[in-house]
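Work Package 3 (structural annotation) set out to generate three-dimensional models for the target panel prioritized at the project kickoff. During this period the team completed the workflow that converts sequence records into discrete structure tokens, so that structures can be stored uniformly alongside our sequence database. As a representative example, we reproduce one entry of 812 residues exactly as it appears in the project archive.
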Amino acid sequence: MRSIRTDGRRRPLRSSLALVAALAVAVSGLTFGTVLSEQTTTESASAATAASFDPGNIISDVNFYNGSAMSSSSVQAFLNSAGANCRAVSGGPACLKNFSQNMGGIAASAGKCSAINGGVKSAATIIAQVGAACGISQKVLLVLLEKEQSLVSRAKPSAAAYRSATGFSCPDTAPCDPKYYGFGQQVYGAALQFKRYQASPTSWAYQAGRNNSILYNPNAACGRKTVYIKNQATAGLYIYTPYTPNAAAMSDLYGNGDGCSAYGNRNFWRMYTDWFGSPTGGSSPAGHVDSATAGFRQVTVGGWAYDPDVATSPIRVAFYVDGVGKKTITADGARSDLGSQLGAGNTSHGFSTTLTGISGGSHNVCVFGINQGAGANALLGCQQVTVRTGAPFGKLDQATLAADKLSVRGWAIDPDTKSSIPVQLRVDGVAKKAWTASASRTDVGKIYPGWGNAHGYSATISGIGAGKHTISTWAKDTSTGKWTQLGAKTVTKASGSPWIVIDEASSTAPGKLKIRGWTADPDTIAPLRVHLYLDGKALTSFTADQTKAGLDKALPGYGDDHAILFTRSSVPAGKHQLCIIAINVGPGGNSNVCTTFQTPTGPPKVKIESGSSPTLGSLQVSGYAVDPDTVQPIGVTYTVDGKKVTTGTADQASATAAKAYPGYYSKHGFQATLTGIGPGKHTVCVVGTNVGGGKDASACSTVAMTSGNPVLLLDEVSSPAAGQVKVRGWTIDPDTASPIQVHVYVNGAGAKSLTANEAKASLATTYGGYGANHSFSTTVSGYRAGSTQVCVYAMNTGAGANTTLCRTITVK
């Protein structure tokens, strides 16, 4: 992407491009009935003047991203004219006008370029195909080739010029990457790169719609210029060639500036202007013919058209069939997909119209954009379409034979009339039924516009014999009276014993049985009677008439209502054999299928969901316990560190148990608070009492007891005699079972330190894990009579802090 090279040659091309300008055919005054020939939309060449250069709008998005700007033949004509003076050196590469290359196929790049087929191609074909595939104007690619290597006008091209034809992957500060050497690779690489810029416009250093600080030269000392970039195409040019021309470069538009000049984007604008006219205005319409769909004596054509000279205003488009003008309309339909090319607020340029009165046969449909302002009318595209005529056409979508009932479905159209037409059903070549294909088929009407929707047919007949049959449907030609076959299918009439399938035979809870399946007899479409046997004894009988979605798809014609759905809640525990007998209708005999199932059994399923120590000496545990052999709550035993603490029943509501074991109801939860537990971590287990098969089962969890500050209670703070203070109480530190130290302070001064190790029977009852020896009692003397503050400190052990209680008493 080097761009520092100046173009010292003064205006070498403009005089030689008169022939190119002559290629443009002016069709601004369309006359219906006149054939419009293909045109290049190339404008008259005009000399560039520096005053017209806008660094923020070097080229419009419409001109830059117009992938249909020039056809291969137009590009070739341009190369012949612009390269008229080229004479290849003996042994050297050919002139660009004569150059060809064997290129491999190129896969599509999602959202950027469509696929390009490989093969030997001329330079003109490569430029035209790459531009069309990537949506980059062929004019832009020609200017890029000239700007980078002068390949278009070069008198004696070199191999090096072809290797780096567009300067792609050729930074100013390093050699070109040889991975991208070659003319075709360079043209495609540059086009794809510009599409990458467009696909992620905010991912690059230079962005449209804001001020950008752009260097004048790779030498940063030359300074920068603030440029407000107005559109994506201009942003792409600056990303590809990251310099803007300085005043010296612009003062001599066809020559050299000074040591800080860079010329790449100046030359791009100048060359485009000299060759094709203003890059930002004076342009011919652009657009595309997206579709041309034939219908009943009509062709519906859709696409879009836009003229950059009238900004957001819609333009007229003209439609030609086989060179004869048929219609003009305004292209003002909403096309949100145009936002990426024309801007989010400039998308009302779509067109769609139906050309009527088109005779049967093949036709060439062309669409022209009617020019506004400078430029010329532009051919947006042509498509070859065929309007059907002659024999009817249609389809036999389906033919099904269930029992002796034959059903057919399809559609039929006579291309010479909108009316519904007669159809006929034949079985083994013999006509069985005739009727009119008049049912609504919106899908057919959408695909074949103009004929309407009333072309569907369906029919059912009975009395089809056993064996294989050829079913065909025919449509009558309204013009000739002849019958045309729409389609044929082979069907075979099934006969014999019923089909029967058991999808499920299970017991999800004690005493419960669930059966799912289906049965049908090939000799009837009616539901069958079935008999159920459990362990060889008749259980029940019923009609298998429940709905099983998709059954008719597997057995066309029989319908979905042949399902077996049965439940029973009083099945004995254990393993059982279940047999289902389908009662035959017609030829064959009854069919039966047997399977075994087991009612649930085994040890209890126990789960501890939480375990904690909410208070001193207590441990709380919760969860659920379910025994597969019963839906009733079962007993549980709680142990701590392997020792039994208490028992209970898992009879509380538990949503998790109900979800894990559907059919067992929800009351299988347990929750218990175990007291008398000592400090530290403990293993708590819950043992479920087994019922039926299996044995007791348990779940265990490790629970850390409560930790932190000591618990301190003062039973007495008094003055039993003159000058005396008596303190009595108890304290336990949750982190240890051992007695802890107690400090007594009187009026802020230490009075006594002692160990709380006296026995207190009630403590052993309430906090059994900590023992009874946590009580204390002491009397201190020598204090003045009157109000006195007494504070007791329980000295912490482990986690937490000391606990303090204070009382004010009157000393005697």
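Confidence is low (pLDDT under 50) at residues 2-45.
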